[in-house]
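Notebook, student rotation project (T.W.).
Task set for the rotation: take a protein with a known small-molecule partner, predict the structure of the complex, and write up what can be learned from the model alone. Partner molecule chosen: zinc ion. Sequence and SMILES entered below by T.W., checked by me.
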Amino acid sequence: VPELPEVETVCRGLNQLTRDREIEGGEVLLARAIAYPLSGDSFLAGVTGCAIAQWQRRGKYLLAQLTQSSQGALKSTEGILKNRGGLGVHLRMTGQLLWTTKDTPLQKHARVRLFFTENRELRFVDTRTFGKMWWIPPARAPQEIVTGLQKLGVEPFSTEFDSDYLIQKLHKRQKSIKAALLDQGIVAGLGNIYADEVLFKSGIRPDAITSTLTPVQLQRLYTAIREVLQTAIDKGGTTFSDFLNPLGVNGNYGGVAWVYGRKNQPCRICQTAIERIKLAGRSTHYCPRCQN
Ligand SMILES: [Zn+2]
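Predicted structure of the complex:
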């Protein structure tokens, strides 16, 4: 399942590959992959003739700013690039955005195709079909259309995120810290894999009740969140899942996991066997000795 580092990797790849390119048309192969507008045809009508100005990541959402394509802009009297709204994507569990050519044979789970100039294509492939795409009309704010954006907490690399923020958000909560880290309304972008890694680096048990954590522990947690995510971004995402960047390449974070996916293997610090429990409905890995 793509988490913040994977989505950030996709975002960077899309900025390198698609920026300033024009969408010439497309094809919606699975209607429910489009969350807005209600019909695939309206979605395609919205994005066709637009160029990608810039991709941004917010939590696990990808948002592209669309402009009038340069061809269209030359025709307009102002000669400036006109705002044409946006394109939103959420990969959910198994979604992939692949930068390919139009003549590449369709994958069984191809859901949406966006055709670009020079025979290029951005193809949305999604086995489990939970992934979504949105066209955001020019007059609307992204969060009006992609409503999940309204519920997101702070970005872990933003200036609003610091240890005081964590203390303020967490000191009264009675749930496990693992559940708190998975809550996108507190910190945006953490999922199951990196939550386990962050808690190992912080020396905190995943089932610790959040309100019992000390300021010192929360300070360690804050530092670990940034370190773990930055390391994963630097390595281009994870190999834990079938994650692929837009060129179809798997990341290489797998070799450096501290606990995730390492049940019964020796802890990299103390050699104790890593344990796996079910917590917040999710498979959770930790070292019973290093984390307490
Ligand atoms: Zn250990």
